[in-house]
Design brief:
Order of helices and strands: HEEEEEEEEEEEEHEHEHEEHHEEEHH
Structural class: alpha/beta
Number of domains: 2
Radius of gyration: 24 Å
Largest sheet: 6 strands, mixed
Strand order of the largest sheet: 14-13-15-19-16-17
Number of helices: 8
Oligomer: single chain
CATH architecture of the largest domain: 3-Layer(aba) Sandwich
CATH topology of the largest domain: Aminopeptidase
CATH class of the largest domain: Alpha Beta
CATH superfamily of the largest domain: Zn-dependent exopeptidases
């Protein structure tokens, strides 16, 4: 897989490979929407609550499903500390972000009349800036926070209209950044809001990998998950060439078609291919294609080559931390703010809010990419695919840098090894390898949409 076929790259390390693939890219587009309504309140009675700096109205605890557990109470003397909270987005999509000094468990759900979103937490020490929550933004008119009982805290987001909880998650502390609790809200109408309340009050068991997590429920048609397959190279760029003349661009296109057939046969994926013929596409266009099509996952397919003919096996790459940091630094200035994160218009946001939202999106996408890579390595091993001795690596390939689309690059094997070339050219091997990747997708989306692993 060479960006410049005229050069040779004897160094097999991730850094050298990244240099070879100069150029595609977590775009937390609205990653398949996941509703986290873990409980629904049927009746709410206002009571008084105190917060260190201001009185905070309290809402009574949610009436939870039988298997729903409240957030765990931290051990004595270890109260988490919240240091900041912000709102970003617009009147269609709004994100609430709270910085905490550590990860915390939580429950989130919505209530009507008046419309509000409730976030239940263990006891939190709220050390937010003066006036935090008094001024709203987007779909949230204001927010309140405080202690509602010993060991229990609550945040109430006062919505200006009906909203759905698109997704909610906690990102762990990383690279000097605090943990962050994020809740994404999308505008809806009252009928849809009340229907969602009813669905959460009477949950139905999921029927396999979910779709966009938007809660279709019942027998409603399920929206298929969009997977973009990118066959590397093409046209005047043959990629690596084996000793017998076999070209990487042909190997990966044949495999991409086999993978598409396997995924289509599973019934819950809509597969798009960046190329389905022998044409060349710039790396940036491959990433842009995934974002335009609202991809839930991007899989770039390649085959490696080294000076040594003894190295064999498949390798899965995800974006390195260093590469993602560099990309983050340039995103806000290089890209139109209305298009950095799908679903959020950041044009009117202060730079500090934009930076926080971009960082959250990239960290969330990177985490999802790594989780899929782990499923992929496990499934390929189970499917008896030969793996490289270090099957999951990190590099700065351009095709992995979309800020809102979880992405992996799969090196099927080595064009410099005749046995690998023979296998990759075999229709039987392609079907078996495609089935392994299909099984990895099923496992990844099943855990992601069920909420486990989020």
């Amino acid at each position: 897989m060479r960006s410049d076929p005229a050069k040779t790259y004897p160094d097999p390390t991730g850094a050298a490979l990244a240099a070879r693939r100069s150029g595609i890219v977590w775009r937390p587009r609205a990653l398949p929407a996941i509703l986290f309504g873990a409980a629904v309140m049927l009746a709410a009675a206002p009571v008084a609550a105190q917060q260190a700096q201001q009185p905070v109205p309290q809402t009574s605890p949610a009436q939870a499903p039988p298997n729903a557990a409240p957030p765990a109470v931290p051990a004595a003397g270890s109260t988490p500390v919240a240091t900041d909270a912000r709102l970003g987005g617009d009147a269609r999509h709004t994100r609430f972000v709270m910085q905490v000094d550590r990860e915390v468990p939580f429950r989130v759900f919505a209530l009507a009349d008046p419309y509000r979103v409730i976030i239940d937490l263990p006891q939190i020490a709220f050390r937010l800036p003066d006036g935090a929550g008094r001024v709203g933004h987007g779909l949230v008119g204001a927010f309140r926070f405080g202690l509602i009982a010993v060991g229990k805290s609550r945040i109430v987001l006062d919505a200006s209209s009906p909203v759905l909880i698109e997704r909610a998650f906690v990102l762990p502390p990383e690279n000097g950044q605090p943990a962050r609790l994020a809740v994404d809200l999308v505008a809806t109408d009252r009928a849809t809001f009340m229907s969602e309340q009813d669905r959460l009050s009477n949950p139905r068991p999921p029927a396999g990998p979910s779709t966009d997590g938007a809660g279709n429920g019942g027998n409603a048609p399920r929206k298929k998950l969009i997977v973009v397959i990118d066959a590397g190279h093409g046209g005047g760029d043959p990629g690596a060439v084996a000793r017998d003349g076999t070209r990487e661009k042909d190997i990966v296109l044949g495999f991409a078609r086999a993978l598409r057939a396997d995924l289509n046969g599973r019934g819950h994926y809509k597969v798009q291919m960046t190329r389905d013929e022998d044409v060349f596409l710039p790396l940036r266009e491959r990433v842009a294609f995934a974002r335009r099509n609202g991809a839930s996952l991007f899989i770039s397919v390649h085959a490696d080559s080294l000076n040594s003919s003894s190295v064999r096996g498949a390798t899965v790459y995800t974006l390195s931390e260093r590469a993602s940091d560099k990309e983050a630094a340039a995103l806000a200035t290089k890209e139109n703010k209305s298009d950095i994160i799908s679903g959020l218009d950041l044009v009117d946001e202060p730079d500090e809010v934009t930076d926080i939202l971009i960082d959250l999106a990239q960290r969330e996408t990177k985490n999802f990419s790594v989780r899929f890579a782990k499923h992929l390595v496990s499934a390929m091993s189970t499917g008896r695919m030969r793996l490289n001795h270090n099957p999951h690596r990190f590099a700065g390939f351009r095709v992995l840098k979309a800020p809102d689309v979880p992405s992996v690059l799969v090196e099927l094997g080595y064009m410099s090894n005749s046995s690998d070339v023979r296998e990759m050219s075999s229709e039987r091997w392609r079907k078996r390898a495609a089935a392994s990747i299909g099984a990895a997708l099923d496992a990844y989306f099943a855990t992601r949409m069920s909420g486990t692993g989020n």
